[in-house]
Design brief:
Blueprint (H helix, E strand, L loop, with lengths): L2 H4 L7 H5 L16 H21 L6 H19 L8 H22 L6 H11 L2 H21 L3 H78 L3 H26 L7 H14 L3 E3 L9 H22 L3 E6 L3 E6 L10 H12 L3 E6 L5 E6 L22
Parallel strand pairs: 1-2
Antiparallel strand pairs: 2-3, 3-5, 4-5
Helix pairs in contact: 3-4, 4-5, 5-6, 5-7, 6-7, 6-8, 7-8, 8-9, 8-11, 10-11, 11-12
């Protein structure tokens, strides 16, 4: 597995520390309809004592109003932070940093417990990339400790700071676990999309291999029947050709159904028979072997596809008068004397290359010196297993 793939879902790579948890389109975060209710519940332990403290003041002053605005602005930011998940990174960072500054201001001005810093540090952990959360939350906790020290309350409040740091750390790992799960969900969707695409390509390739050859042969035979009727009026021969067209049509329909159901198997011997019939109908001389016994059984299915596509190309494009087919244990050659002067990689040849790549084979197409194409498919034979060492038997009784 590549290095980037190993680090994609964890925090072991630089990219995962700095990338946004979610894009603007994906959104993310808590449910924006239910969160205000939950947020108010979480804020009550902070807002109730703060509100009582403000209400206990004997008179309303500008400082008291400013303190109230600071406290409730901090609480309002906590209630609204789910809406910031769809913002761009600069806006998210500004929101998180601003909320942490409001929390420090509340501790400094209102004399609140440093425990309220947890609202800001938690928001930063869930809203920003992991690296930015660390860069903002650690200075916030250090600034909170400094405020306690300046006010002479460090010994009374350091326990709350430790609690805030511990809970923030737990939320940090929880947030990154949620992000990893989200990335896995997106990866599964991508895998499903790729699987559908690959299946479509497979079906398209199989249907091309099937219908391309069958329809070409049907066209050739139908044309032959027409020419027979037009030239000599030999009705029995024309009827025979039409019967073969009907048979080919039924066979093609059966193959299409079998391909969709993944039950079809191509037979090299059957392809030889079909190729010989198609070439004869096109008045092309076919020089082919009559048996496939010398071809390894595990290669015959693949070579059947190669033969079918090569003969289809001859019928469609070559203008050849003769076709030669040669077979070996792990190779197949189809040669024609047509008019081709170059190799054009169409869908058929690309599909054959993919099939051969899947079994470790190669497809080479070249132009003959006198015109025409030579198509050679070859699959490397498996390495022979090492023979077991012979055990030499000693005569009973040993040496005399």
């Amino acid at each position: 597995m590549a290095e980037s793939e190993r680090h994609r879902f964890g925090l072991n790579g630089r990219e995962s520390w700095w990338e946004d948890p979610f894009t603007e389109a994906e959104g993310g975060g808590p449910d924006r309809l239910r969160w205000p209710v939950l947020g108010v519940v979480f804020l009550l332990p902070f807002l109730i004592p703060a509100t009582r403290s403000l209400a206990a003041e004997p008179e309303v002053t500008a400082g008291l109003v400013a303190t109230g605005v600071l406290i409730y602005a901090y609480a309002l930011c906590y209630l609204l932070f789910p809406f910031a998940f769809r913002w761009r990174r600069p806006a998210k960072l500004a929101f998180g940093i601003g909320m942490n500054l409001l929390g420090l201001g509340t501790v400094a001005v209102a004399g609140s417990s440093p425990f309220i810093l947890l609202y800001g540090t938690a928001v930063m952990v869930f809203l920003a990339p992991p690296a930015w959360a660390v860069l903002v939350d650690i200075p916030t906790l250090l600034a909170g400790a400094l405020l306690l020290a300046v006010e002479g309350k460090f010994l009374d409040g350091y326990g709350d700071l430790i609690t805030v740091a511990s809970v923030t750390l737990a939320m940090f790992f929880m947030a990154n676990l949620i992000r990893a799960i989200r990335r896995l969900e997106l990866a599964n969707k991508e895998i499903a999309t790729l699987a559908v695409t690959n299946e479509r390509q497979r079906v398209a390739r199989d249907l091309h291999d099937l219908l391309g050859h069958s329809l070409t042969t049907i066209t050739v035979k139908a044309g032959l029947a027409r020419r027979v009727l037009e030239s000599s009026g030999d009705i029995p021969r024309a009827v025979e050709e039409i019967r073969e067209v009907e048979s080919l049509t039924r066979s093609a329909l059966s193959d299409v159904r079998a391909t969709v159901s993944e039950y079809r198997e191509v037979s090299l011997s059957a392809e030889l028979v079909g190729a010989r019939a198609a070439l004869r109908a096109a008045e092309i001389e076919a020089d082919m072997p009559h048996a496939v016994d010398n071809v390894r059984p595990e290669f015959q299915n693949t070579f059947g596809y190669v033969l079918r596509e090569a003969v289809t190309n001859v019928l469609r494009h070559s203008g050849a008068k003769q076709v030669k087919v040669r077979l070996g244990s792990a190779w197949l050659e189809v040669e024609d004397d047509g008019q081709a002067t170059g190799v054009v990689q169409g869908n058929g040849l690309r599909g054959l290359s993919e099939r051969l790549d899947a079994v470790g084979g190669t497809l080479r197409t070249s132009v003959r010196s006198g015109g025409g194409l030579l198509v050679r498919a070859e699959i490397p034979q498996p390495e022979p297993r090492a023979a077991a060492p012979a055990v030499r038997a000693e005569p009973a009784g040993g040496l005399a």
